[in-house]
Design brief:
The protein is an alpha/beta fold. It has 12 helices and 15 strands. The chain folds into 2 domains: about 240 residues, 3-Layer(aba) Sandwich (Aspartate Aminotransferase, domain 2); about 110 residues, Aspartate Aminotransferase, domain 1. The strands form 3 sheets. The protein has an 8-stranded mixed sheet, with helices on both faces. The chain is globular and about 65 Å long. The chain binds pyridoxal-5'-phosphate.
Length: about 375
């Protein structure tokens, strides 16, 4: 079976897990949690990191710390439900925004939604390893006192390259600079679930440049136990969201090979381009995406029929995201639409993109698609 995006261990993970076992820190504390958080900080440039059990809980903590409750939250409609469920956990109303030609939140539709509602936060998903056009969104958020939370669950390792000066990005030298997805808004999240670029089987990291907020998130993720008391004192509701030391040990091993994995993902994307005469997800100018998944939009084929044919040939593929505004759960919700997400869902497909794939295997997948 050729899977969509299976785990790919470097070999070091088992060694680190063994070390964690030997230390007997089989708990949501231990040195690998610190190391994992440090490695994300060093790699992305985020000032503060909190390792948690998944990206969904990381988004929940972000909303909780910012006090976004019983409010309106804008989110892209073309995303996974994990971007949206946390909005509901805090009894907020999601407002769905359709996407631009780069498949990410459309700025003009967001602007209209901001004018017509009382939006308190924007959750901006960066999808399929690529990034959203964040600069105008950040500007809109700042002008309207709206918090920006980047859902970079799928896009760890993707970044913006830009030439300064850019007051929005707070960079003042004249060199090309990079800013990682997830590190620009008030909060960002990364996912390490089983099919992501890197995996800890299940896991997430919350990042923020605001130290106080990150501290608060960490406190809430450990049952909001007041640290100055040994006798279990609680003043507010907390959550059991902290990552385990064992999973963090896997994460430390995975982070050592992140750039290798990204190069391979990008190579796989180029192979697909060579073998398929179809449309592919575009990459925003002056950004580097990871091509976590190669996604294609067919000119004439029905993606669901292609998916079936691939399955018959032991090849896993998946539809593109089924827009949130079409979900039974969100019947009657407000949505600002342009038809793009529905069109993408009808015509597109995610192709196998695992980093152990060979060019021969990609060719084999394409032969089935083309047949
Ligand atoms: C865009 C997006 N947001 C959120 C999530 C939730 O991540 P997790 O599975 O780590 O909770 C995922 C992935 O599963 C995702 O793809």
């Amino acid at each position: 079976m050729i899977f969509l995006s299976p785990p790919h261990m470097s070999g070091k993970e088992l060694e680190y897990v063994k070390e964690a076992f030997e230390s007997n820190y089989i708990a949501p504390v231990g040195k690998f949690i610190d190391k994992f958080e440090e490695s994300i900080k060093n790699y992305t440039g985020a000032k503060n990191t909190v390792a948690v059990c998944n990206a969904t809980s990381a988004l929940h903590l972000a909303l909780r710390v910012l006090g976004i409750r019983d409010s309106q939250v804008a989110v892209s409609t073309f995303t996974f439900i994990g971007s949206v469920n946390p909005i509901l956990y805090e009894r907020n109303e999601p407002i769905f925004i359709d996407v631009d030609e780069y498949w990410h939140m459309d700025v003009e539709l967001l602007e209209k939604a901001i004018k017509e509602n009382d939006i308190k936060a924007v959750i901006l998903p960066h999808i399929y390893g690529q990034v959203a056009n964040i600069e105008p969104i950040l500007k809109l958020c700042k002008e309207n006192n709206i918090y920006l939370i980047e859902d970079s669950a799928e896009s760890l390792g993707a970044y913006y390259k830009f030439q300064v000066p850019s007051s929005e990005f707070q960079v003042s030298s004249s060199d090309w600079k990079i800013k990682h997805s997830g590190t620009i808004g008030e909060f960002g999240v990364y996912s390490f679930n089983g099919n992501k670029l890197l995996t800890t089987s299940s896991g997430g990291v919350l990042v923020s440049n605001n130290e106080e907020w990150a501290k608060k998130a960490k406190f809430l993720s450990t049952q909001a136990k007041e640290p100055e008391f040994i006798e279990y004192v609680h003043k507010e509701v907390g959550f059991n969201y902290r990552m385990s030391n064992i999973l963090a040990a896997i994460g430390v091993g995975q982070m050592e090979v992140i750039e290798e994995r990204i190069s391979k993902k990008r190579e796989i994307f180029e192979w697909y381009k060579e073998f398929l005469d179809e449309e592919f997800m575009p990459e925003l100018k002056n950004t580097r995406g990871t091509r976590w998944l190669t996604t294609v939009v067919f000119k004439n084929k029905n993606p669901f029929e292609v998916m079936k044919k691939l399955q018959e040939n032991q090849i896993e593929s998946r539809p593109l995201w089924n827009p949130m505004h079409l979900q039974p759960l969100f019947k009657g919700s407000k949505a600002y639409l342009n038809g793009r997400s529905e069109e993408l869902f009808k015509k597109g497909l995610c192709l196998p993109s695992g980093t152990t794939l060979t060019k021969e295997q990609v060719k084999e997948v394409c032969e089935v698609v083309n047949s």
